[in-house]
Amino acid sequence: KAGVTQTPRYLIKTRGQQVTLSCSPISGHRSVSWYQQTPGQGLQFLFEYFSETQRNKGNFPGRFSGRQFSNSRSEMNVSTLELGDSALYLCASSLTASNTGELFFGEGSRLTVL
Amino acid sequence: DQQVKQNSPSLSVQEGRISILNCDYTNSMFDYFLWYKKYPAEGPTFLISISSIKDKNEDGRFTVFLNKSAKHLSLHIVPSQPGDSAVYFCAASAGMDSSYKLIFGSGTRLLVRP
Questions:
Q1: Do A33 and B43 touch (CB under 8 A)?
Q2: Chain B 54-113, residues with CB within 8 Å of chain A CB atoms
Q3: Which of the two ends of chain B, N or C, has the fewest CB atoms closer than 10 A to its terminal CB?
Q4: Dihedral sign computed on CA atoms, order B34, B38, B44, B47
Q5: If residue B32 lies in a helix (H) or strand (E), which one and from where to where?
Q6: Using one digit for the tens of pLDDT, what is the confidence trace for A4-37?
């Protein structure tokens, strides 16, 4: 079956702009998480959604937001982009609601802010 | 404050030898630990996990050891193969947290030399 799909794969924005990233989880998966990966920082947790509800949020400013739709697809938005927002944004889905289930990651959306 | 630390950014081993990747954590509430592997231009993929009720879990060439008193876990790969060359991330979660939130380390880049 199809894996986690993220669009766009690559994008370039300038400071002050906003961006929306999309994630389609594996069919049947209801939990979607977002992570930011930057060199030397590993993967930083952004937020997690389950059944259209945000269940947990990481330590990111309010410029970072997300949502999940009834079909489990998710979007994340970053407003007023800063240079430091340049990163690989990874989406992951899980079949179970439990935090001991396996996370399946997409290939990521690489954002460059100029 | 990094709750999960991978202090070795890189490791190089000869093919056929053992690779040992280390991970330390500070949060005593963590009770589930995972290792993910990431190739360039791909999302991380789940490798192996261990619950805090165990001190060892083995899956083929991969074994994870957990030392709760030292808040330390390690991933052993025996024998190492060139295809194992990738970035390895250690991750942890707390069972008390009902949502799906993994705390990742910064990763260790493993190079297996032929």
A1: no
A2: 89, 91, 93-95, 97-107
A3: N
A4: negative
A5: strand B30-38
A6: 999 999 999 999 999 999 999 999 998 999 999 9
